[in-house]
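Shipment paperwork, digital attachment
Item: protein structure file
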Amino acid sequence: MDFFSKLGETISATGKDVTQKAKDLTGLAKLNIDLKAKEDFIQHQYTEVGKQYYELHKDDVEPLFEEINLIAETFKEIEQLKAEMIELRGQKKCFNCGAVMDLDAIFCNRCGTKYDSVFEEEDTATKEEDTAAKEEDTEEEVVPEVELDKAAEMAENLEKADQEAQVADETKTVE
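Attachment content:
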């Protein structure tokens, strides 16, 4: 019976050793995870400090680090690439708010800025100059009812376009 009692003690001791080693491995894994999280946190903080430094010194005449110039150049290249992508997709960028829209869009989907063709812009500029000259000649301006009706109609069209743009944006967001 002595053999069996020694065997039982050996099995019990081995079980305790295995349990202790499993606890040690679990503790070691937890410490490794904590260590990695702390290192990632420090790396993130370094990045934030670098961003803040860049923002403070990006307009310096002679920046302390050449990397500031490299970052600025890379931002310009990114904007050029984005513009090329927009053009290849058959879209344009709003000069007012920066939203991307179809090339044939008349109004911006986000801010409602009106876009005319190049020829219409020239005609509009000429009409505005003529109107300004007429206003100088006339002391009192009388607005015909037809023009008031057109203005009201344009306001309604702008409102409808804005609502359609909001629906389109919501649809894109859902997709």
